[in-house]
Structure formats: structure tokens, C-alpha cells
Design a protein that fits this description.
Rossmann fold, 2 domains, seven-stranded mixed sheet, 9 helices
Length: about 240
């Protein structure tokens, strides 16, 4: 998809899901609420998933504002660069939140495929399901559960995503990577992509080491696009065959 069409379709998609870009005052209030929730999660690492789900349940409405204010286009450009997407691909997204990005992939990139979204927050997932109904999409599913042990069949997915989840700073991260590896098809077109705010990113050596523990080959790391919170790193890997 060319850049002009991609940008136009993305703007329309955001309007149809999370709505207009919020005002500065709306964003300020949303960021205060999210910062308070994050304080509970990230004052120390490795929090219980029940606590994580409760925090994200509380900030779900504020999260709509964040998504509406975010520029997803640079991430989609990099996604197109590294993922050789076919219309019938199967994609799984770990910790998918409101699944707005994933809904766009289902609609525009894999209309003949399927997208599975997994998140621990039932409130986030409820909102995501409302978006699915509004867009009349049949090729996407929202599952409430842990990404450490998913109901996805082994060797069944073409792409696995983990987008700015905070998971990479958790001591269970290698187990998350192993689960991603388990469900990915072991072929050249299969790919694992995760993103993380650069300020929270690990060293390149540690990134490669963690991926290797889960039988992934490191492909690349991009630090070329900005979010509302600064530079975002995208790490791309492929399962060892």
C-alpha cells in the first residue's frame, strides 16, 4: 500500500474507532490517569497479571485518548518494510489493549486472513469488541488471557506482535518470547516484531541474547519513529528454522 493511501485509510480508521484527536486539556487529564496507573505497575518489575489487568481496566477510557493522539503511520511503514504480508496471513498480537492497530491490520492487510488479540484486561477487550462490531469485521478475535500460555495452536501464525507492552522489562520476557516462537510457523516469511519506548529498551547484546534463548534470530532494530513519549524502538526477529 502506498504511503498516501495508507495515511488516508489510517486517519479514517482512527475516526471510526477512537474518534477525533483529543485536545491538550483532554490529553493532560488522560496522561495523569495513566501515569497514576503506571506508578502501580512500574514502581517495581514483575507484577502479578491480576494487578496488571486491574490497572489497565481502570485506564481503558483514558487509553482511547492516547491511541487517538498517536501517530501510527511510521510504525505501519516499518511493518510493511519487514513483514512480507499476504492477504491470508494469520497474525497474533500479545497485550493488544484496545486493538485499534490490529483492527487496521485485519481490515487492510489480511482481509482473507485472521488476527488474534490477547490481553489480560477484560475492560480493554470489551471496548475492542465494540470496535469490531462497529467495523463489521469477521476476521479478528479478542481473547482475555495471559500471553505466557495462549490457546493458539503451535506453528500456526505468520506474524506475532508485542507492541509497547512493558513485557520486555519483566523477568518472564523470555517465556513470552518462547510462546511467540511456539505459535509461529517455522518458515522464512514468519516474523516476530516487538516495540518498546527507547528509554526502556535493553542493550543490543541483551536483546539478541534473549531472542536466542527463545530460538529466534535477530534481524534488525529500528529507532526511526517518535511517539508522544519519545523515540520508539522496533525489534524484528525470525524463528530459527
Amino acid at each position: 500500500m502506498n504511503l498516501k493511501d495508507l495515511g488516508k485509510k489510517l486517519r479514517e480508521h482512527l475516526l471510526n474507532t477512537v474518534g477525533e484527536k483529543p485536545s491538550e486539556e483532554e490529553m493532560k487529564l488522560a496522561e495523569e490517569q495513566i501515569k497514576k496507573g503506571y506508578g502501580e505497575l512500574y514502581d517495581s518489575p514483575n507484577k502479578d497479571e491480576l494487578l496488571i489487568s486491574r490497572v489497565y481496566d481502570r485506564i481503558s477510557n483514558a487509553w482511547k485518548k492516547v491511541v487517538a493522539n498517536e501517530n501510527h503511520l511510521p510504525e505501519l511503514i516499518l511493518f510493511q518494510k519487514y513483514a512480507e504480508v499476504k492477504s491470508d496471513f494469520k497474525i497474533t498480537s500479545f497485550a493488544s489493549g484496545l486493538a485499534v492497530y490490529e483492527l487496521f491490520l485485519a481490515k487492510e492487510f489480511v482481509p482473507n486472513g485472521f488476527v488474534t488479540c490477547i490481553d489480560v484486561s477484560e475492560t480493554m477487550n470489551k471496548i475492542a469488541r465494540q470496535f469490531i462490531e462497529k467495523l463489521h469485521l469477521k476476521n479478528i478475535e479478542i481473547i482475555t488471557g495471559s500471553v505466557l500460555k495462549t490457546p493458539i495452536e503451535s506453528n500456526s501464525q505468520d506474524i506475532v506482535l508485542a507492541r509497547r507492552t512493558g513485557l520486555s522489562k519483566d523477568n518472564r520476557w523470555v517465556n513470552v518470547l518462547k510462546e511467540a516462537h511456539r505459535i509461529l510457523k517455522k518458515q522464512n516469511t514468519s516474523i516476530f516484531i516487538y516495540t518498546v519506548d527507547k528509554v526502556f529498551n535493553d542493550s543490543l547484546e541483551e536483546i539478541k541474547n534473549n531472542l536466542s534463548k527463545a530460538d529466534f534470530n535477530f534481524v534488525a532494530m529500528e529507532e526511526q519513529y517518535e511517539s508522544n513519549e519519545g523515540i520508539v524502538s522496533m525489534i524484528i526477529a525470525k524463528p530459527k528454522i
